[in-house]
Specification:
heterodimer, A: mainly alpha, B: alpha/beta, 11 helices, globular
C-alpha cells in the first residue's frame, strides 16, 4: 500500500501532536492524583515529625548557603543600581524602600524559589527516581510500607515549610546587602534608609503577599520535583531526563504563577 | 508429589495474566506446600517475575485465582494486601537496600515501621538477624560500602526481619561470584529450615537451584511446561527442559534472534547486482 505524498508526511506529525497532547493531559491527571494521594497519606509524617525534620535538613538547611550568598549579592546589586537611578532624581534617601520592596515583593520569593528548584528540587527528583530504579520503592511496598506516606509526603511537607523561610532569609540578607552598599560604602544617610523603609513597607500588603507567593512556589516546586521522580522511567536516561524536566518545569511554573499572583494582588489592592 | 490442600500455602489455579493484548501468563497451575523450598525456573522473559508479583498482590490476575494461606488476593483491598505482605519477605534481584540507611537501620526498618518494640529489643533482634547471615560485624556500614554478595545477605536479613511465613527470592544468584553464590544458596535452604518458612525461588541458575530446592516448576513463554523434584527434572527428556537444565545453545529455544537471510544482511546480493 503506497501512502499518498501528503498523508505520508503530514499524518505522522499530526498524529505526534495528538499523542503529545494526550500524553500531557494524562500526566497532568497522574500528577493531580499523585498530589491527592500525598495529601491523603500525610498522616504518617505528622504522627512522626522526625521524618519531616530529617527532610527539612536536606531540603532547607543544605540550601541555606546558596540562598544566603545569592541574597547578599542580589541586595548589593540592588543597592548599586538603585543608588544610580535614585540620585538622578535626588531621592537617594529612598534607597532602603526600593531595596526592601523589590526583595520582599518579588525577588525574594521568585529568585529563592528558582534556586530552591535547582538545588533541592533536582536532588529530590534524582533521589526518588534512583530509589525507584534500584527497586527500593518496590521493596518498601513489599514490606507493607507505603512509599507515598513514608518517602514522598515527608519531603513534600519539608519543601512547603522550608520555602517561605528560605525566601524570608533571602530577603533579609538582601536588605543587609543593600545596606552595606548604600549606607556603609556609598554613604546614604542611615536614618532615612531605615525609617523610610519602615514607613513604606506594609506587613500585610508587602510582606504577607511575599510569604503567600513563596508558599505557593514551595508547593509547586516540591510537587513537580516529587512527581517527576516518582514517574521517572527506571533507567539512567529516565532519571536524568526527569531531573532536567523538574528544573525546567518548576522554573516556568514559578514565573507563570508569579505573574498570576502579582496581578491578583494588585487588583485586590 | 501432590500436596494435600491443608498443607498448601500458596495455591495458584488457572491463572492467566496479560498486559493489554499481550499475554504474559497462560493457564498457570501451581501449589507450594508449607515448609518447602520451591524453585520457579525459566529463561528471561518467561513470566517468572510476573508470577511473583501476582503472589505479592502487586498485580491481580486477569483470570483465575491466587490463594495465599487460604486468602484469595483478588478479593483483598489494599489494606488487606498490606496485611498479607507483612507476613511475606522478598529478596530483590540486587538487594534493593535503602541507600540512605545503614545496614543496621535497613534490617530494623520493618520492625520500626510495623512493631512498637522498644529500641533495645530491636537492637537485639537486628543483631540476631545479621548474625544469621554472618554480617553482625558490618552493622555500621552503609550499603555503598558492601560488596554485591554482602548486600544480598543484608537484604536477606532485612527480608526475614519479621519472621515471614513466605520468603520469595527474585533471582537471588544473579551477578554473584561462585563463593557468594554458594553462600546465598545455602542460606536459602538453612533459613527456610530453621525459621520454618516456605520459600519460593525465582531463578535461572539451574545447578545451584537444583542442589537446594525440594521441587521445581519450569515456566516457558508464560506456560507451565514441566514440574517435579530436581531428580525428575534432571532426567526429563522433553527437549525444551533438557536444553534449559543442561544449558545447551542448540535446541527448541533459538540462539539466533529471528533475522532475515544472513547473506542478504551482509549485502552479498547487492554486490552481485552492482
Amino acid at each position: 500500500m503506497q501512502p499518498s505524498p501528503v498523508s505520508g508526511h503530514s499524518l505522522p506529525s499530526v498524529r505526534r501532536i495528538g499523542a503529545n497532547a494526550i500524553d500531557t493531559v494524562l500526566r497532568l491527571g497522574y500528577a493531580t492524583r499523585f498530589i491527592g494521594l500525598t495529601l491523603a497519606h500525610s498522616g504518617t509524617s505528622f504522627a512522626r515529625p522526625r521524618l519531616i525534620v530529617r527532610e527539612l535538613y536536606y531540603t532547607g538547611v543544605l540550601s541555606l548557603i546558596i540562598i544566603l550568598v545569592s541574597g547578599l549579592f542580589v541586595g548589593m546589586v540592588l543597592g548599586l543600581q538603585g543608588y544610580q537611578t535614585l540620585t538622578t532624581y535626588g531621592s537617594e534617601s529612598a534607597l532602603g524602600v526600593l531595596v526592601a520592596l523589590s526583595l520582599v515583593r518579588e525577588l525574594g520569593p521568585v529568585v529563592s524559589a528558582l534556586l530552591f528548584a535547582s538545588r533541592a528540587g533536582s536532588a529530590m527528583t534524582a533521589e526518588i527516581g534512583l530509589m525507584k530504579a534500584t527497586e527500593q520503592l518496590s521493596a518498601m511496598e513489599m514490606m507493607a510500607v507505603d512509599p507515598i506516606a513514608r518517602v514522598v509526603a515527608p519531603r513534600f511537607w519539608a519543601g512547603v515549610i522550608s520555602m517561605p523561610l528560605l525566601a524570608a532569609m533571602f530577603s533579609a540578607m538582601g536588605v543587609f546587602g543593600g545596606y552595606v552598599i548604600g549606607v556603609v560604602l556609598i554613604g546614604v544617610d542611615e536614618g532615612s534608609f531605615w525609617s523610610q523603609m519602615q514607613s513604606a513597607v506594609d506587613v500585610r500588603e508587602d510582606v504577607m503577599n511575599g510569604v503567600i507567593k513563596s508558599f505557593v512556589f514551595g508547593i509547586a516546586v516540591t510537587w513537580i520535583a516529587l512527581f517527576e521522580g516518582y514517574d521517572a522511567p527506571p533507567t539512567a536516561e529516565g532519571v536524568s531526563g526527569a531531573t532536567t524536566r523538574t528544573v525546567v518545569t518548576s522554573s516556568l511554573a514559578i514565573l507563570g504563577l508569579d505573574f498570576i499572583l502579582t496581578s491578583f494582588m494588585f487588583s485586590a489592592a | 508429589m501432590a500436596p494435600t490442600a491443608s498443607s498448601t500455602l500458596i495455591e495458584i489455579s488457572d491463572v492467566s495474566f496479560a498486559y493489554g493484548q499481550r499475554p504474559i501468563l497462560t493457564g498457570i497451575n501451581m501449589s507450594i506446600p508449607r515448609g518447602k523450598v520451591v524453585a520457579l525456573m525459566g529463561i528471561s522473559g518467561s513470566g517468572k517475575t510476573t508470577l511473583l508479583r501476582l503472589i505479592g498482590g502487586v498485580m491481580k490476575p486477569t483470570t483465575g485465582e491466587v490463594r495465599v494461606n487460604g486468602q484469595c488476593t483478588s478479593e483483598l483491598d489494599s489494606a488487606g494486601i498490606y496485611r498479607m505482605r507483612r507476613r511475606m519477605g522478598m529478596l530483590f534481584q540486587f538487594g534493593a537496600l535503602f541507600t540512605d540507611l545503614s545496614v543496621f537501620d535497613n534490617v530494623a526498618f520493618q520492625m520500626r515501621e510495623h512493631t512498637g518494640l522498644p529500641e533495645s529489643m530491636i537492637r537485639d533482634l537486628v543483631m540476631m538477624k545479621l548474625n544469621a547471615v554472618g554480617l553482625r560485624g558490618a552493622h555500621r556500614l552503609m550499603p555503598a560500602e558492601l560488596s554485591g554478595g554482602m548486600a544480598r545477605r543484608v537484604a536477606l536479613a532485612r527480608a526475614i526481619a519479621l519472621d515471614p511465613m513466605i520468603m520469595m527470592y527474585d533471582e537471588p544468584f544473579t551477578g554473584l561470584d561462585p563463593i557468594s553464590l554458594g553462600v546465598i544458596a545455602n542460606l536459602v535452604r538453612d533459613l527456610n529450615d530453621t525459621l520454618g518458612t516456605t520459600s519460593l525461588v525465582v531463578t535461572h541458575d539451574v545447578q545451584e537451584a537444583l542442589d537446594v530446592v525440594d521441587y521445581v516448576y519450569y515456566l516457558s513463554d508464560g506456560r507451565m511446561m514441566a514440574h517435579g523434584t530436581p531428580e525428575e527434572l534432571r532426567a526429563n527428556t522433553d527437549p525444551l527442559v533438557r536444553q534449559f537444565v543442561h544449558g545447551e545453545a542448540e535446541g527448541p529455544v533459538a540462539y539466533q534472534y529471528p533475522a532475515r537471510d544472513y547473506g542478504a544482511d551482509l549485502r552479498m546480493g547487492g554486490r552481485r547486482a552492482a
